[in-house]
Write a structure and sequence with these properties.
Keywords: Kinase, Nucleotide-binding, Transferase. Monomer. It is an enzyme of class 2 (transferase). This is adenylate kinase. It is built from 9 helices and 7 strands. The chain is α/β, with parallel strands linked by helices. The chain has a domain of about 160 residues: Rossmann fold, CATH 3.40.50.300. The strands form 2 sheets. It has a 5-stranded parallel sheet, with helices on both faces. The protein has a two-stranded antiparallel sheet with strand order 5-6.
């Protein structure tokens, strides 16, 4: 244990009770190993925290995990840092190794949600091989199916107030006065990822690389197609239906 770690004696009883109750409730949940697949703006980020809490899963976002492994200077993190510093992509084997490490944490005991990985069929195969060694497999792939034109409207209409992080949408949540923040009156900006050009290249990459992953898992009979163009509450209801079956 690190010297700075907190002694249990110093943790308020209420916090310990809450955590014990959570773990007790979680012990009755079925194990789930889930992959979320969908283009940018399809709502994965909205649904994953809900699924995580409902099923007591850990959320494995590969970008965050890579940064954490690099910061913690784990053997895999050191290798990943070397690759990044050379401007190379981190190899699939390294990413799968980092996922393998992360899955050993107590918070991943009931399973995980993978988001942002696998992006290619080769990555899916490597992930399956790693899980197979543990006697596990992917239970469900949630495919956030949505038409490109709906995504374009969703994403290119997003504007934010940089200093507060308040977000607006030209169609769904417009500011009172066009282009300015309701509270401060300061100008709104569009993130560079939210422009038509960037979205087009990200969607092209998604269709080219990641759609074959959906086909790969469809052949294994584990894909559930979600109507991602619906309102978030309706998508949540669909997810619950799929995961309870």
């Amino acid at each position: 244990m690190a010297a700075s770690s907190v002694s249990l004696e110093d943790v308020p009883s209420m916090d310990i009770m809450t955590e014990l109750l959570r773990r007790f409730k979680c012990s009755e949940k079925p194990d789930k190993r889930l992959i979320l697949i969908g283009p940018p703006g399809s709502g994965k980020g909205t649904q994953s925290p809900i699924i995580k809490d409902d099923y007591c899963l850990c959320h494995l976002a590969t970008g965050d995990m890579l940064r954490a492994a690099v910061a913690a200077k784990t053997p895999l993190g050191i290798k990943a840092k070397e690759a990044m510093e050379k401007g190379e992509l981190v190899s699939d084997d390294l990413v799968v190794g980092i996922i393998d490490e992360a899955m050993k944490k107590p918070s991943c005991q009931k399973g995980f949600i993978l988001d942002g990985f696998p992006r290619t069929v080769v990555q899916a195969e490597k992930l399956d091989q790693m899980l197979q060694k543990q006697g596990a497999k992917v239970d469900k792939v949630l495919n956030f199916a949505i038409h490109d034109s709906i995504l374009e409207e969703r994403i290119t209409g997003r504007w934010i107030h940089p200093s507060s992080g308040r977000t607006y949408h030209t169609k769904f949540a417009p500011p009172k006065a066009p282009g300015v923040d309701d509270v401060s009156g300061e100008p709104l900006i569009q993130r560079k990822d939210d422009t038509k050009e960037v979205l087009k290249s990200r969607l092209d990459a998604f269709h080219r690389q990641t759609e074959p992953v959906i086909d790969y898992y469809s052949k294994k009979g584990v894909v559930a197609n979600l109507p991602a163009e619906k309102a978030p509450k309706e998508v949540t209801a669909e997810v619950q239906k799929v995961l309870s079956s």
